[in-house]
Design brief:
The protein is an alpha+beta fold. It has a single domain, classed as Glutaredoxin. Helices cover 40% and strands 29% of the residues.
Amino acid sequence: MSKVKLKDFYSDWCPPCKKQSPIIEELKDEYQQVEFQKIDVDENEELAQEYNVSAIPTLIIECDDEIKQRYVGFTKKQEIKDSLEKTTSNC
């Protein structure tokens, strides 16, 4: 079966990232079939560049390493849920 991943590009000094973090934690509990990855852009600059992350938070939802959805800036839980539902059902 294909694997859905949510990559959360963040930094500890970023206020919107701190606001986004509890939402991601809730989604982790709700979507146990999804692999969640928290990626600190200060510690993983090359990976952030590889994914063209120019602002944080950036959330990237992938299926089989193909980007299906990208959110830049604080994103509401329902928007992320809708994308996860769509991606997990089509992946």
